[in-house]
Amino acid sequence: MLFLFKALVALFTVVDPVGLVPVVLSLTAVLPTHERRVVITRAVLIAAGVIAVFAVAGRAIFAALGVTPEAFGIAGGVLLFLVAIDMLFGRQSGTRETPREAREARLREDISVFPLAIPMIAGPGTITTIILLVDTSQGRALELTAIGIAAVVTLLAAWIAMLASLRIQKAIGTTGILVLSRVLGMLLAAVAAQFILNGITAFLGHTALGR
To answer: How many other β-carbons are positioned within 10 Å of the β-carbon of residue 51?
Structure first.
């Protein structure tokens, strides 16, 4: 249960479903209701596929590159910490979407793949988080199941938030969205720091054993 909570907090904060609301409003403003629902659903399904691929093959990919779990844990923690800082200061994170990508997105007819699925939902931060969580689980079935549940809950929350973006915007306003993003940013900063500490601790432990 504790690991499920940790996984849910990590994924929920890095995806930030409520933070997707302004992006969805700006990109789908001209779409009919039905088409808007189709685009959002397709984006979530594509993001789920990307997350699943990296959850299954992420460790193998980095092993082939010669990257140790400790190194990736530290690097991933730093990346998540940068995302958290952007959330705390209310800035658009470059790890999710750059200004150039935002301009290109407005010129595309199908926005479900880019930028909604990638990088807004399944961006570098999300991919880093899922790989770190899988690595932390050490292959234990119960914890892998917890990661799967956390991913499904997070994606479901993102889907609901994007579908209800107009209502959310009216209910809490832009200020409310920014306040919530800052609170989530604080939680993500703590999770990122823990990933870094875990990586350093594991590295020092292996170094001590090597001696």
So the answer is: 26
